[in-house]
Amino acid sequence: MQVSVLGCGGSSGVPALGGEDGRGQWGACDPAEPRNRRTRASIFLRMRDGCGVLVDTGPDLRAQLLAHGISAFEHVIYTHTHADHVAGIDELRGINRQISKAINAYGTADVLEELQQRFAYVFKPVTPPHFFRAALVGCPVTLGRSVSIGGYEFTLFEQNHGYVTSMGIRCGTFAYSTDVVELPAEAMECLQGVQTWMVDCFQRTPHGAHAWLERVLEWKARIQPQRLILTHMGMEMDWEWMRQNLPEGVEAAWDGMSFELPDPPRMP
What we know:
- By secondary structure, the chain is an alpha/beta fold.
- Helices cover 21% and strands 26% of the residues.
- The protein has helices spanning 61-68, 83-86, 92-99, 109-118, 185-191, 213-223, 239-245, and strands at residues 2-7, 42-46, 52-55, 75-77, 103-107, 136-140, 145-149, 152-160, 165-171, 174-177, 196-200, 227-231, 250-252, 258-260.
- The chain is globular, with a radius of gyration of 18 Å.
């Protein structure tokens, strides 16, 4: 399984709009370091048989897919409905045109209901061979259970994202926890044995809806993954500072990062 980091930034990206010259607010991040430039958080999983699974469709999706050479897949998982994770949903039309069918969209019943309210046209019957709009088929999932996606086992667990619930994803020895500030006991149990964990770390100081560095390191001590990768990072998280100060086994993601892991188990 290849894991591609399409984006690892927070809801505003880095740089955020504004700045004295109108070319962005960088905060503590050095503008001269390319790995400080972050689009909105999303990952893509490609199994060895070619099965592709996208996680979230943020507003930067078109540029992200082009940058990674991704033009065909049949599955997308939605972790929650915040705009920085769903606002690029219309870009899926280009994928529909490549695969000539609707894309399977996995999310909890509440998430799919809200998506269907906000983007009702996306869930109408498909119109092949001419796709004039994005086309999705809703696939409801239940947190705390495993589901077959493309024939592979994905375990989906509940996360506290401050004012809302988000969904964590375990796929074999890999787990992805974007947009989380607290992990219930069931999530901690699901994460046991994970070897590579990509987790929300928005900033170095406490935040009401996102994990921060101290909290992430506390989770690491409990879960003990071999490799912990920070994502959904804001303007406090300068690349060079992290390179010099993160402990062994902890690293920062960057837009364009990619790595190989074993495929998850097959399901009937």
